[in-house]
Design a protein that fits this description.
Non-ribosomal Peptide Synthetase Peptidyl Carrier Protein, Chain A, mainly alpha
């Protein structure tokens, strides 16, 4: 289950990257802004793609970088929201 989420989420991250990154570049500590150069618009595109891919919706109160600014926190959020994947 977690490996499936990992693969699907990494695919979204790579698709929206401004620079070329690979699966190996992404780990739980990867920071979307600092490590990959995302801006607020590209982060919002990731949010939209995640909602579509995992058939879920982010709570408005959770849409801030403290919760979703790095790969590990985003993955944990998805696991909490959609635990039956």
């Amino acid at each position: 289950m977690v490996n499936d989420i990992d693969a699907r989420l990494k695919s979204i991250i790579i698709k929206n990257a401004k620079a070329e990154i690979t699966n190996e570049d992404i780990n739980d500590n990867s920071d979307f802004i600092g490590d990959f150069g995302y801006d607020s618009i590209s982060i919002m595109q990731i949010i939209i793609d995640v909602e579509k891919e995992f058939s879920m919706q982010f709570d408005d109160n959770d849409l801030h970088l403290a919760n979703l600014g790095n790969y590990g926190r985003l993955k944990s959020y998805i696991l909490r929201k959609v635990p039956l994947l």
